[in-house]
């Protein structure tokens, strides 16, 4: 008699589980790969500045754009919505005009390619590749995973004294980005923290919510050890936005619990080094007795404004800030910033940007470029919040069928626009800016109103 194995005694084959998952998430897997590449150390000799030779993540971002174009053509997919096309098309005008004003044709082409990559091509591709809430969550969890990985490395650097130099000690957590890009780890950890807090509001998934809350709590440690005041401010603004959108009462409860915990840990138990407490208190004291880094930043901000006054409409040209800096800056500006530690020796880095994205665009692209870029970002904020309120009114206080996706998009957008007041593009993590803007644009102005998608949902 032939023995027929009982299917109840054998679980599903791994391929039977993996293949449907891969087919379902195939559109966004290149984006996940792009995020995963930033977990690898930057090879020695690779450029980390805005005008450098690029990294593997930059190359994969080009593949993501190409992959999106091929899928759109094969599926005869409708292009961007009218609003999205306008918001992504306006920066092209400002960047093109500023490219003609660059010091050389090569400089103009390189600068234009970088701006179009980060603010037009990658965001548009991410917008078109995201199809549903599962894609939203996959990208969000990928950012959480990247933040945890870089955070673990950063905490280890702090505990073992192998991080970047800070006040004479190699304790600054920088992850795999090294001492020449001290904002890299702070950026990806902040992205992960904001995403985790938003995913904690996913309806009907208690295990996912618990895991998201735990990840958010863990990510606060490497964020603190990054000693990045700009990342702290941006994360506070983004987390506050997420909590307020989720509900005022809930936001008040969370803030009260967080405040009480901070008082107990810091004031009562003395958790947190003196350096960390001093860095935190310096946020409100930078105008009283600023250190040289703050003085340099204020000086470069003033120089940017002076460049704009000299060329108010089109600016000094793409990548023209370094060439015009000395003629517009005061004598208070130092020759550069000192970096060391995290596996590299002492390096004197020149100050090639004002560390403020809005002032960088204003000085190099004038009012034309700033209106196109910042105006589009402001429109994304308005559209995202308006859609959130429409969903709440339609579905009730739960905030619509996908409240966690909406919170991910709004939180990341607020973080990025707040951080732009203290940072600009440059470094390996810059490519994630395009991903974040694409995620936010998918919620705010994506093709959400199509009847086919509405019927499927």
Q: Could you characterize what this model shows?
A:
With 457 residues, this protein is mainly alpha-helical. It has one domain (78-290, 349-456). It has 17 helices and four strands. A two-stranded antiparallel sheet has the order 1-2. Strands 3-4 form a two-stranded antiparallel sheet. Strand 3 and strand 4 form a beta hairpin. Helix 14 (357-395) runs parallel beside helix 16. The chain starts with 13 loop residues before the first helix and ends with a helix. The model is unreliable at 47-52, 396-400 and 448-457 (pLDDT under 50).
Run of helices and strands? HHHHHHEEHHHHHHHEEHHHH
How many domain units?
A: 1
Q: Class by helix and strand content? A: mainly alpha
Shape: globular
Write the layout of secondary structure elements.
Elements: H1 14-25, H2 29-37, H3 56-74, H4 82-100, H5 105-129, H6 133-160, E1 164-166, E2 169-172, H7 183-199, H8 206-225, H9 229-246, H10 248-268, H11 274-281, H12 292-310, H13 321-328, E3 337-341, E4 344-349, H14 357-395, H15 403-419, H16 431-445, H17 451-456
Antiparallel strand pairs: 1-2, 3-4
Helix pairs in contact: 2-3, 2-6, 3-5, 4-5, 4-14, 5-16, 6-7, 6-8, 7-8, 7-9, 7-15, 9-10, 9-15, 12-13, 12-14, 14-15, 14-16, 15-16
Task: Quickly describe the structure.
With 457 residues, this protein is mainly α. The chain has 17 helices and four strands. It has one domain.
């Amino acid at each position: 008699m032939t023995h027929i194995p009982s299917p109840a005694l054998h679980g599903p084959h791994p391929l039977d589980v993996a293949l449907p998952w891969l087919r379902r998430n195939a559109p966004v897997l290149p984006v996940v790969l792009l995020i995963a590449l930033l977990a690898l150390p930057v090879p020695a000799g690779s450029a980390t500045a805005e005008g450098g030779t690029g990294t593997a993540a930059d190359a994969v971002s080009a593949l993501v754009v190409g992959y999106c174009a091929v899928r759109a053509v094969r599926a005869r997919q409708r292009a961007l919505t009218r609003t999205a096309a306008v918001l992504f098309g306006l920066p092209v005008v400002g960047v093109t005009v500023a490219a003609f004003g660059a010091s050389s044709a090569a400089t103009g082409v390189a600068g234009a390619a970088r701006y179009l990559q980060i603010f037009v091509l990658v965001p548009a591709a991410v917008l078109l590749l995201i199809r549903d809430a599962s894609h939203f969550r996959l990208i969000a969890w990928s950012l959480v995973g990247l933040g945890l990985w870089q955070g673990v490395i950063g905490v280890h650097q702090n505990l073992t004294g192998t991080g970047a130099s800070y006040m004479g000690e190699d304790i600054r957590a920088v992850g795999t980005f090294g001492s020449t890009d001290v904002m890299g780890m702070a950026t990806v950890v902040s992205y992960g923290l904001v995403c985790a807090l938003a995913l904690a509001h996913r309806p009907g998934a208690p295990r996912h919510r618990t895991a998201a809350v735990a990840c958010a709590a863990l990510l606060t440690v490497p964020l603190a050890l990054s000693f990045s005041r700009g990342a702290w401010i941006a994360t506070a603004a983004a987390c506050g936005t997420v909590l307020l959108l989720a509900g005022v009462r809930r936001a008040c409860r969370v803030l009260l619990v967080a405040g009480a915990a901070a008082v107990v840990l810091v004031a009562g138990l003395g958790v947190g080094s003196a350096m960390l407490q001093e860095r935190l208190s310096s946020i409100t004291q930078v105008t009283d007795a600023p250190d040289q880094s703050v003085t340099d930043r204020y000086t470069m901000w003033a120089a940017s404004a002076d460049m704009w006054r000299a060329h108010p409409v089109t600016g000094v040209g793409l990548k023209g800030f370094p060439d015009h800096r000395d003629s517009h800056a005061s004598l208070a500006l130092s020759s550069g910033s000192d970096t060391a530690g995290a596996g590299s020796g002492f390096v004197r880095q020149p100050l090639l940007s004002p560390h403020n994205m809005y002032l960088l665009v204003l000085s190099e692209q004038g009012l034309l470029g700033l209106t196109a870029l910042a105006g589009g970002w402001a429109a994304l904020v308005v559209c995202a919040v308006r859609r959130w309120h429409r969903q709440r009114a339609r579905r009730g206080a739960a905030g619509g069928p996908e409240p966690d996706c909406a919170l991910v998009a709004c939180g990341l957008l607020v973080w990025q626009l707040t951080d732009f007041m203290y940072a600009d593009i440059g470094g390996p993590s810059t490519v994630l800016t395009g991903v974040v803007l694409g995620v936010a644009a998918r919620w705010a102005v994506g093709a959400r109103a199509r009847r086919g998608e509405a019927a499927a949902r």
